[in-house]
Amino acid sequence: MPANRPVYLDNHATTPPDPRVLAAMRPWWEENFANPHSVEHALGREAEAAVEAARAEIAALIGAEAREVVLTSGATEANNLAIKGAARFAAARGSDRRRIVTAATEHKCVIQSVLDLAGEGFEPVVLPVGPDGLLDPDRLRGAVDGRTLLVSVMAVNNEIGVIQDLPALAAIARAAGALFHTDAAQAAGRIPLDVEAIGADLLSLSAHKIYGPKGIGALYLRRRPRVRLAPLFSGGGQERGLRSGTLPAPLAVGFGEAARLAAAEGALDAGRIAGQRDRFLAALRAEVPEVRLNGHAERRVPGNLNLTFPGKVDAQAIMAAAPDVCVSTGSACSSAAVEPSYVLRAIGLTEAEARATLRIGIGRFTSPADVDRAAASLAAAWRRALAEARKAPVAAGA
User: Distance (Å, rounded) from C-alpha 118 to C-alpha 121?
Assistant: First the structure.
């Protein structure tokens, strides 16, 4: 990366595509651009074979069978398909299970999918989490009964990086006869995932969170016992009738290569990233001793730091004063909203604290020089923002 480029520490919003992913995709843009569903000719069959090989790599990343993986446009579509698809299939068959349970810190697309189903006669239940961001299994147990159709709890939070105890939560759901879905977009490639060990019936993935291309994701759909969904939209019946539309072969190939690399190198990535995280935090705390980490200190992915800065500063002001660092105040999907993060409010931060919080996402390509530069820049930006904040009341009263 050129020396004048900003340091990129926003790897929870998206990861840069791995050069090996780009290389794997390129032939399917240029040399064979055929529709993978055009199996009447050789180029179409080659494209189909490439897509199926990619599907197998995606399945292997989560311990699934290739035929259990439905390709989508991303995790948002996968989450909608899992939640709304399960609900509508059950309703069409006269099921009296109408309760759908999730947590207050879920991604917006999960919470909104659950709430949207209230208009279709379902009962949304949104559970609070603890100050550490974790869902208490006993709280879930108290909300799940014979009326529950589905429980959806994300594997890793996209803002505070905490890792939920999925096997314990899934066991509670399944003991009540409910389906268990997890949004694993932020978990894949960062922690080991195995659908059998988790006990997941449905699991969502996104390629661009694992150094793959934007515009493609996947939904794992258990075969035994079989999980049934209603499709979200009509079309040519691709993806076993669950997700119609022409598959983008280059994106699928890129997703497959990203999944292969994540499976092969995830543990090495995690160790290296944890080292960069610790180096960054130590350097920042040397300059800003009172900076506070949000979420459970140990049960979190290696690259995540969600930090509240002291002194009643505004995180937007810190970012404006550090244009050479790319960080964020929360979910990229909510970045148009002016209000403070609902995830941070759900774990007990005040509005002022939430507004003084930055999300740091360290990734595969973050170097020691990057974290040193970023820590120094953010510390200097915090000092400038603090000085401006302290002058503001005087200016207002002048």
Answer: 5
| Domain end point (choices 212, 232, 260) | 260
Read off the pLDDT of residues 289-317 as tens digits, 9 standing for 90 and up.
999 999 999 999 999 999 999 998 999 99
The answer on 71 and 152 residing in a single domain is: yes
Cis peptide before 225 (omega within 30 of 0): yes
Specify the pairing of strand 99-103 against strand 179-183.
unpaired
End position of a domain, from candidates 243, 260, 277: 260
- Cβ atoms within 10 A of the Cβ of 196, count? 10
pTM score, two decimals?
A: 0.95
The residues annotated with a catalytic role in the active site are 333
Q: What are phi and psi of 267, to 5 degrees?
A: -65, -40
Same domain, 192 and 173: yes
Asked if residues 152 and 105 have their Cβ atoms less than 8 Å apart, the reply is: no
Distance CA 46, CA 39 (A): 8
Which of 105, 109, 108 has its CA nearest to residue 128? 105
Strand extents, DSSP E, the chain: 7-8, 69-72, 99-103, 123-127, 148-152, 179-183, 202-206, 217-221, 292-293, 304-308, 325-326, 357-361
Same domain (yes/no): 306, 168: no
CA dist list (Å): 175 to 131, 144, 298, 343? 27, 9, 29, 28
- Among 99, 218, 103, smallest CA distance to 152 is for 103
The answer to whether the beta carbons of residues 9 and 303 sit under 8 Å apart is no
Neighbouring C-alpha atoms within 13 Å toward the C-beta of 327: 31
Per-residue pLDDT of 206-265, as tens digits, reads 999 999 999 999 999 999 999 999 999 999 999 888 999 999 999 999 999 999 999 999
**Domain enclosing residue 276, as ranges:** 7-15+266-390
Whether residue 325 contacts residue 9, with contact meaning beta carbons closer than 8 Å, is answered with yes
- Which structure tokens are listed for 336? 């148009």
